Amino acid sequence: MTKKITILFTALVLLSVLFSCTSNSKIFEENPPFSVKEATFQNWFAGAQEFGKGTHVFLEMENITQNTQIDSIYFRGLADVLQKDPNNPLKYKGNLKAAAKQDVVLHENPIKEINNPIPNIQKDFRFDLSPNEAVISYHKNNKRYYYKVTHLKEIEPLNYPSTNRGENNN
User: Are strands 143-149 and 134-140 parallel, antiparallel or unpaired?
Assistant: First the structure.
């Protein structure tokens, strides 16, 4: 009797391992209703630490079929809604902003800490991607799909100038 239980248990463990390995690869569509002509990203820095930093992701699409809405981008642990370029409906941009570090007050009296910012806890990132891969989320006929874009090209970073707060502008 124990031999049958051991065999059954082993079979269940093997099946669960097999299905868990294949589930991540089945998430992505191999033939989406569009093609990505160009995919680039550009890191940006706000010039001062409190203003943050982030990444712009630029996508140029082709052959988007009817009833397909390009929705979101997932890249390097961050996600954002893709914005369509008003001058070119085949171009999209995502602005992925890393959380800026904020000062907090630590005090023995907890009342003095009441105005501290609420920590921005990042949700679990659902995709395991290499640094130059992104995932496009899109809807077709009211159903959500995901497409993995590989080999995004990095373009030159954008460095916004910092302002000198002590400078007198006379």
Answer: antiparallel
Label residue 96 by pLDDT band (50, 70, 90).
Answer: confident
Backbone torsions φ then ψ of 145, nearest 5 degrees: -135, 165
Is residue 73 within 8 Å of 96, Cβ to Cβ? yes
Listed residue (33, 35, 90, 36) closest to 65, CA to CA: 33
Amino acid of residue 33: P
Question: Is residue 40 a contact partner of residue 132, using CB atoms and an 8 Å limit?
Answer: no
Q: How does DSSP assign 4-19, residue by residue?
A: HHHHHHHHHHHHHHHH
104-162 confidence digits (pLDDT tens): 667 677 776 666 665 554 555 678 888 899 999 999 988 999 999 998 999 998 887 76
CATH 1.10.287 describes domain 31-159: no
pLDDT digits (tens, 9 = 90+) for 45-56: 877 766 678 899
Q: Is 144 exposed, middle or buried (0-12, 13-18, 19+ CB in 10 A)?
A: exposed
CA distances from 60 to 24, 39, 57, 87, 100 (A): 26, 7, 10, 13, 29
